[in-house]
């Protein structure tokens, strides 16, 4: 295997407390040296002066679309997008066709990952058969087959008794349940956040109470069963409060937030103009919420109430979005803009660097207890997995979806100027480098 | 044949007015005062044409107007068709039922097809809010929103304003009560923005389940905006009472306990109108459920402007078509 030297960057790892300018040397798929120049010469050198050198990012929530929806994305295209976004570990959500609700389906997925994935992909198995919310999937078999969590993804388990049973079994297995908390009786038909804006635009709204009620229910069930409950993409201020309260009472709850909900509000549906654009690329589930909610999500992340930033990367084909707003498929292609929006928020002073990096690395690794499977995941440690990201925190760039590696060009950020960009990534010891930085590196050397 | 008999004179539009520059008419929210004035004064000229023996001009000769309705409509579609024909335009009528839309054609493909056929102005009604905005973005022809979901129905609000002005002159300080299913009403929303712009007092009245609670909260502090769940209180001192159609499915969905309960609390009837200002005007965007949101004697009483609204609708829509076509010609 090629040996790689990342030279002169600011090595930053909140999990180990490292924050120092130095070199990272990678060989044989492991981190061989950290901070000090290596004894050997490297096959490849990445100049990282002025850049951050971080542990590879861990995404607890992404949609790779394969099998079943290859027109939206494939394991090959979407993990290439993940790689370019700095995500070296991705948890694949189970809303595929067929969904991974049995051990053979999981085995098929693992074989596809082994064959096509550019980064480490870990499967999330279904809670119920066919994600139908009627009968439990064989959770023990799914766990044995390698599922890191259980979830019915965008089809929340509406039947509270069934959810309680699932939690009892998941608690016994020690596997977290990642739940999209949404009370369908309240949110049914809603296509954006319910509020003054939805009522001005005449679009049916999904109220915050739909999420809040479901979070409250699931926390109560987690408290009774001892199951590890992971709240997927929390989007409401009151939801954050409930999670904080549950954590304070020692209930095993973790939570994630998306870069989209941290960066955008419901105003993105209107768009930047004086007349409403009904931007279908801003349709997402849970919906983009109010500015007060966004502020509360930032505070919750800073306070450690929210453990992880997860992309909810959801690529769609053009025709899924080129339609009426209420007929558009929900979801944002997020892998390749996550660093840009997060570092823009760091530059604005909305988020702290340590908070963002922890929530992209050690936070999610711990929420799904991934360290048991991949020693050293989410940190930079000598002898640990060679998952490293080099981020240039100051470069400004404009979002151009046509340049995405993802098949999904669906983002409300097209044309938006962001600050901060992934320059290079080592995933499992293999280097990817952005073309521009290659040129810049050559120019620097020739001088 | 009609064309040859029509006078070749353009409508007598005041030359001092601001020019119309918009490609589309999608909403009343965001319309400037001078744009509203231009539409209404142009509508006056159109009403004058309609009073002539022939009632037609050739101002839009060579212009193709299409109506594309994804929802049922009688008056709006007929009104646009008559308006376009009165200006000498060629008119194509399309419905979603029985067209390529039923075969699964997307909105954008349908719109592009119509543009390729040579349609200059497309009047669209659609159950999805924002559908005309999406269509307008993908087409260079002009779009007129003939009603989109719960969002907007700009020509209805313009004809309502035109009708109110004919009776009241300026609307500044006048009290306009809109009663019924405000939450789902594009007519109420489009009227709200226009009437607030005119300086009228607007009162939204209806049961709590049929009021847009967040929109109302966001308007608190707007001096001319009021709301009430009590029709007797709302109607007191009213100059105009506009009843909205109550969809029967609202009861099925549990938004009202029963039609009987709604009638008891919110029907616009003679007894309640007695609390309004003398000479109060009664309006309804149609089609009416007589005996539900409006009593039959009020619907057809001396104070009712319902038929006048329909007649004025043709003049207002002629004005909108004429202005949009004029902007295209430039």
Sum this structure up briefly.
The complex is a heterodimer of chains A (447) and B (330). With 447 residues, chain A is an alpha/beta fold.
Summary tags:
heterodimer, A: 447 residues, alpha/beta, TIM Barrel, four-stranded parallel sheet, 16 helices, globular, disordered C terminus, B: 330 residues, Rossmann fold, 2 domains, 14 helices, 14% strand
Here the CATH topology of the largest domain in chain B equals Rossmann fold
Supply the CATH architecture of the largest domain in chain B: 3-Layer(aba) Sandwich
Please tally the β strands of chain B and state the result.
9
Q: Sheet with the most strands of chain B?
A: 5 strands, parallel
Structural class of chain B: alpha/beta
The number of helical elements of chain B comes to 14
CATH superfamily of the largest domain in chain B: Aspartate/ornithine carbamoyltransferase
CATH topology of chain A: TIM Barrel
Shape of chain B: globular
Helix content of chain B: 40-55%
Please give the domain count of chain B: 2
Give the largest interface pair and sizes.
A-B, 24 and 29 residues
How much helix is in the residues of chain A? 25-40%
Radius of gyration of CA atoms of chain A, rounded to a whole number: 21 Å
Number of domains of chain A: 1
Measured between the Cα atoms of the first and last residue of chain A, the distance is 30 Å
Strand order of the largest sheet of chain B: 7-6-5-8-9
Give the oligomeric state of the chains in this entry, treating copies of one chain as homo and distinct chains as hetero.
heterodimer
The succession of helices and strands of chain B, N to C, reads HHEHEHEHEHEHEHEHEHHHEHH
What are the low-pLDDT stretches of chain B, counting only 5+ consecutive residues below 50? 1-8
Question: Which percent range describes the beta-strand content of chain B?
Answer: 5-15%
């Amino acid at each position: 295997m090629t040996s790689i030297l990342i030279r002169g960057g600011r090595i930053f790892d909140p999990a180990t407390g490292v924050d120092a300018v130095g070199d990272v040397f990678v060989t044989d798929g492991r981190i061989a040296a950290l901070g000090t120049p290596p004894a050997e010469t490297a096959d490849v050198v990445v100049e990282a002066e002025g850049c951050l050198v971080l542990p590879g990012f861990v995404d607890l929530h992404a949609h790779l679309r394969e099998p079943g929806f290859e027109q939206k994305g494939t394991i090959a295209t979407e993990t290439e997008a993940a790689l370019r976004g700095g995500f070296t570990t991705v948890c694949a959500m189970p809303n595929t066709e067929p969904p991974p609700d049995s051990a053979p389906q999981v085995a098929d997925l693992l074989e596809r990952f082994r064959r096509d994935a550019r980064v480490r992909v870990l499967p999330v198995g279904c809670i119920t058969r066919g994600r139908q919310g009627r009968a439990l999937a064989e959770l023990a078999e799914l766990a044995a087959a390698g599922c890191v969590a259980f979830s019915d993804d965008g089809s929340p388990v509406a039947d509270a008794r069934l959810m309680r049973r699932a939690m009892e079994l998941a608690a016994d297995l020690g596997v977290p349940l990642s739940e999209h908390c949404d009370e369908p009786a309240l949110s049914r038909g809603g296509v954006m956040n319910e509020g003054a804006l939805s009522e001005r635009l005449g679009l049916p709204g999904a109220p915050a109470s739909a999420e809040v009620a479901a979070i409250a229910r699931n926390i109560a069930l987690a408290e009774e069963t001892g199951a590890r409950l992971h709240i997927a993409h929390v989007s409401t201020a009151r939801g954050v409060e409930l999670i904080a309260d549950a954590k304070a009472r020692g209930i095993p709850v973790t939570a994630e937030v998306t870069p989209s909900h941290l960066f955008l509000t419901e105003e993105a549906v209107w768009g930047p103009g004086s007349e409403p654009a009904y931007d279908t690329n801003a349709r997402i589930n849970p919906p983009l919420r109010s500015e007060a909610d966004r502020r509360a999500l930032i505070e919750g992340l800073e306070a450690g109430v929210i453990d992880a930033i997860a992309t909810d990367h959801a690529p769609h084909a053009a025709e899924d979005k080129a339609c009426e707003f209420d007929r558009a498929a929900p979801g944002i292609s997020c892998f390749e803009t996550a660093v840009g929006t997060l570092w823009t928020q760091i530059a604005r002073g909305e988020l702290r660097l340590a908070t963002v990096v922890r929530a992209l690395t050690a936070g999610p690794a711990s929420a799904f207890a991934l360290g048991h499977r991949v020693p050293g995941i989410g940190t930079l440690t000598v002898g640990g997995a060679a998952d490293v990201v080099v981020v240039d925190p100051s470069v400004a760039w404009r979002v151009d979806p046509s340049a995405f590696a993802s098949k999904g060009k669906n983002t409300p950020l097209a044309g938006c100027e962001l600050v901060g960009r992934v320059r290079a990534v080592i995933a499992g010891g293999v280097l990817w480098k952005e073309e521009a930085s290659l040129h810049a590196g050559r120019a620097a050397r020739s001088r | 044949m009609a064309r040859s008999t029509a006078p070749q004179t353009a409508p007598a539009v005041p030359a001092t007015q601001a020019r119309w520059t918009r490609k589309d008419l999608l909403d009343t929210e965001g319309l400037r005062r001078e744009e509203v004035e231009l539409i209404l004064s142009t509508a006056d000229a159109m009403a004058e044409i309609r009073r002539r023996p022939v009632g037609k001009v050739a101002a839009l000769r060579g212009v193709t107007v299409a109506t594309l309705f994804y929802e049922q409509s009688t008056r709006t579609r007929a009104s646009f068709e008559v308006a376009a024909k009165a200006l000498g335009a060629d008119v194509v009528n399309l419905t979603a039922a029985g067209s390529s839309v039923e075969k699964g054609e997307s909105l954008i493909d349908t719109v592009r097809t119509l543009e390729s056929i040579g349609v200059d102005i497309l009047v669209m009604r659609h159950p999805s809010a924002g559908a005309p905005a999406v269509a307008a973005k993908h087409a260079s022809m002009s779009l007129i929103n003939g009603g989109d979901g719960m969002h907007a129905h700009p020509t209805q609000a313009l004809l309502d304003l035109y009708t109110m002005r004919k009776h009241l002159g300026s609307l500044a300080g006048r009290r306009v009560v809109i009663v019924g299913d405000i939450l789902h009403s594009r007519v109420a929303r489009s009227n709200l923005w226009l009437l607030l712009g005119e300086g009228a007092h607007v009162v939204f009245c209806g049961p709590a389940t049929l009021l847009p609670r967040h929109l109302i909260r966001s308007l608190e502090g707007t001096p001319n905006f009021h709301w009430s769940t009590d029709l007797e209180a709302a109607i007191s001192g009213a100059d105009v009472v506009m009843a909205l159609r109550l969809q029967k499915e609202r009861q099925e969905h549990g938004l009202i306990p029963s039609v009987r309960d709604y009638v008891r609390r919110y029907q616009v009837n003679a007894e309640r109108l007695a609390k309004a200002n003398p000479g109060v005007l009664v309006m309804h965007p149609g089609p009416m459920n007589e005996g539900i949101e409006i009593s039959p004697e009020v619907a057809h009483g001396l104070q009712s402007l319902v038929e006048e609204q329909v007649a004025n609708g043709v003049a207002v829509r002629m004005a909108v078509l004429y202005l949009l076509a004029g902007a295209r010609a430039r």
